[in-house]
Amino acid sequence: MAFTEIMFHIRRFVHKSSRHANLFPEKLFNKRHKVPAHFYVADDQLVEQIDNAIQPFMQQTKCDTAIEMNPGIGLFTRKLLNRDDRLKKIILIEAMEHFLPALHDFHALYPERVKVKHNDLASLWKLSFQDRMDNGTRVADMLSDLPKREHNEDPSALLFGAVGSYNFFKHLVNSIIFQNGMFSWGRMEMFLAVPPPIYIHLTCNNDVGYMIYRSTSMLFQMLFEYRFIAQLPREHFLPNQIEHKPIKGSRLRKVQSINPEYLYLVRILPRRNFFDLCPIEDLQPLWYFVKQNCVSRRNRIIPNLEKWIPGCGPRLIVNSVPSETLKPLYPDEDDVELPQYSTRCTTMSNRDFYPNMNIYTQFGDLSASQMLTLFTQFRKWPEYSESAFVASLENTLLKLEAAADENLGIAEEDDLPNEETAFEDVKETETENSQTKTLKKSKLNAAVSN
DSSP states of 311-365 as a string? Predict the structure, then answer.
C-alpha cells in the first residue's frame, strides 16, 4: 500500500477514534469518490483554527444575526454562542435529521437566541425553483428569522458553513441577477469552507485557460467581494473522501490537483455598490450578455456584437474615453499567499476599457470589469432597444420560466459533462440515499429471479 494511501487510512481512523466520533452517523465515515454537498466540522482543533481566522472580521462586523449551515454536532456553534456580545440571534439550519436532537438542546438552553430548522441550505437553488413553480414559501420560511435590509445597507446576517455544492454558488449569482432566493433579505457576509476547484473557478482569470475561466467566473467577480483567509485540513471534516487521483488526460487536471488535502476558508460578500454600476433593470440583460457571448470564450467581440448591432465595431476600436484604474480591495493581501490561479479581489468599474481592442479580440481576453464595461457601452447605444439582442433575451427568459431546473441555461461550447464533478456536488440527502438503496435492492432481486 502506498504511503499516501496509508495516511488516508490513518486519517479515517483518527476520525473514528476521536472523542466526537460516536456522535456522527456511521455513513459519514465511509469514503466517497465525489465531492459532497455538505461538510461537517469534526475536530476541536479545526474549530479553534476557524474561530481564530475569522476573528479580525468579527471585530469589524455590525451584524447581530448569524446562520450556521449544517452545524452537525455543534462544535462551531459553541464558538458562535461565546460571541454573545455580538451575536444576538443564531439560526441553525441542518439537513440531517440525525443531528436535530442535539441542536434542539441548544435551543432549550437559549430559547430566545437560538433557532433550529430542519432544511438544506446547500440546496437552496432547488427550493427557490420549487417556489417559482407552485408559488410556495419554502425559501421565505427557511429565512423568516432574518431582518430585511436593502442591498446598499449593511449585511442582514452572517453565514457560516462548509459547502461543496457548485450549484449553491451558481444560486448566489442567480439570486442577485433575478432578485430572488437568498439575497431577497439583503446581503449576507459569508464565511465558507470550499473545495479548492470551486474557489479557483470562481476567482480565476484567463491565465488558467478558458476551460476554467468561464461566464460564472466573470459574473461572480462582478457581483461579489471575495477573500481567501486560510487553508483548512480536509481530514478534519466529514464525510471522508478517498485519495485524489487525477484522471489521466483530463483538461481539468491542473485545477483538480491543487491542494486536494485542504478546503479553503473564504469570505464572500455581495458588492454594496453594484447597482450603481448596473441598475437592477439591467441585471438580466447583463447576465444574458455574459452567458451568450461566453458560449465560447474564443468568440471574437466585434464580429459577434455586429450580429446584434451592425456597424458597431468602429465605436469599440476608436474609444476616446479614459479608462478607470482598478484598485485591490484588500491592500494588506499578499499575492504570494493566494491559492494558485486565484486572483486578488479588486474594485469594480463600468469604465474599465480593454486596451487596443481590435477585430481579433476575444471575449475570453476580458476581465470581469472589462466585460461589465463592454456591456455598459452596448446598453447605451441608441440601437439597443430595437436590436436582435433584446428579442433573444426575452425569448431566453421565457424558456427559463418553463425550465425544470434553475441551473439550466445557456450551455457553453466546451462544457464537460463527464468531468464537471470538479465543480459539482454529490446530492446525497437521506431521502435520496434511501431511494438509491431501494432501487439497488429491486435490481438485485430482479437479477436473482432471472
Answer: T-HHHHHS--SPPPPP-BS-TT--GGGSPTTB---B---S--PPTT--TT-BGGG
pLDDT of residue 356: 93
Helix-, strand-, coil-residue percentages of the chain, each rounded to 5: 45, 15, 40
Q: Would you call 38 helix, strand, or coil by DSSP?
A: strand
Q: At what angle do helices 368-380 and 301-308 cross, to 10 degrees?
A: 30
HSE-up of residue 38 (Cα within 13 Å, Cβ side): 22
Q: How far apart are CA 36 and CA 120, in angstroms?
A: 13
Cα-flanking dihedrals φ and ψ of residue 122, to 5°? Answer: -65, -20
What lies within 8 Å, CB to CB, of 303 at 6+ separation is 313, 359
What CATH number has the domain spanning 3-276? 3.40.50.150
Contact at 8 Å (CB) between 188 and 182? yes
pTM: 0.87
Tens digit of each residue's pLDDT (9 = 90 or more) over 46-83: 999 999 999 999 999 999 999 999 999 999 999 999 99
Per-residue pLDDT reduced to its tens digit, 372-411: 999 999 999 999 999 999 999 999 999 887 765 555 556 6
**Other beta carbons less than 10 A from residue 374's beta carbon:** 24
Q: How far apart are CA 86 and CA 221, in angstroms?
A: 29
Selection from 190, 73, 177 nearest residue 121 by Cα = 190
Nearest-5° Cα angle at 246, 245 to 250: 155
Q: Please say whether the beta carbons of 225 and 329 come within 8 A.
A: yes
| Contact assessment for residue 234 and residue 241, using Cβ atoms and an 8 Å cutoff | yes
- What grid cell was written down for 127? 427550493
Give Cα 390 to chain centroid, integer Å: 28
Classify residue 272 by burial, with Cβ atoms within 10 Å: 0-12, 13-18, 19+: middle
CA nearest to 127, candidates 169, 164, 180: 180
The DSSP bridge partners found for residue 362 are 300
Tell me, what's the pLDDT at 35? Answer: 86
- Parse the chain into domains and list their residue ranges: 3-276, 295-384
**Cα Rg of the chain (Å, integer):** 23
Q: Give the pLDDT confidence score for residue 433 in this predicted structure.
A: 43
3-class state of residue 174 by DSSP: helix
Give the whole-number percent of the chain exceeding pLDDT 70: 83
